[in-house]
Amino acid sequence: MAKITLEKMKHSYMPSPKGPQDYALKEIDVDWEDGGAYALLGPSGCGKSTLLNIISGLLVPSIGKVKFDGRDVTHLSPDQRNIAQVFQFPVIYDTMTVRQNLSFPLRNRGVDESTIATRVQAIAEMLEVTDMLDRRASGLSPDNKQKISMGRGLVRDDVNVVMFDEPLTVIDPHLKWKLRSKLKELHQRVKATMIYVTHDQTEALTFADQVVVMQDGEVVQIGTPVELFERPAHTFVGHFIGSPGMNVLPAELREGGAFFQGQNVTLEGAVDSAASGRIEIGIRPEFVSLGDTGIAAQVRKVADVGRHLVVEAMAGDHKIAAIMNGPAPLQGETVHLQFKPAQTRVYANGWIATGAAS
To answer: Secretion signal: which residues (predicted)?
Structure first.
């Protein structure tokens, strides 16, 4: 296990990058503590896989350093970094039994047979595959094959980090929750440093203690699932996390406050005096309610998703979503939307520009 530090790191696939637009990864400074569970979350093309390949040693960054426990490993190969990686598709030997697959990483490193037997049994019990240890891997279902692939990554107790690159891609949706829960349980038991790469917010938020949200090669926010939901540092985080995502509305600043369609909107705290450029108000649908006063809007549609209603209303040309319980407003009805002040904030050029009230 290791603390992982990415120090002033950038990467470009171009031989002579001339500006930020030429970099797949902009400057990144990140510390991942020893034994933590982390997720890299973002859409396709945001730089997640590039970052993972740099950590694993498959890529050398154009600029900056990768350190494990303070030791510079930037130019070391994957085997010298002592890592384990689980990929999108199960990496196992179909002609081997489950026991032989789990034993292989240890036997390949000359571990004695007694230790191998103990480790394989322990991992098999964690993964709940002891009843199939002597079955050939070729006959396993896709989810069990991926369990074995995970087990191959976890069977060694000397790895610095275990990395998962979208490991549930090929798993049926109704089985994903089982493997997500199992992976979280495994982390709590083995206490290894784990990094999980995904574009799926549910996977990231249920697995990780800390989530690294990426967009266009940049880290836009690092935080706990609660922090990312409660107080997005960037409108992208608000959009990307949550279903539906955060409402982002154009606004203007005057008289020390924020105005949407001429109405003064009460905020969580004071607006940064340096805020300028594109000004927007962000409020999650969970904190929008219907009342007798507020922003006038016309209901466009109502979706009953079982646990609650999602009301979509139009305030002029701007869509505002609200999550609510109780009687549903009618399509076409005029309603008044109220924003919870403690959850209403201003963003300037995408970045948060209000301070939380003390």
So the answer is: none
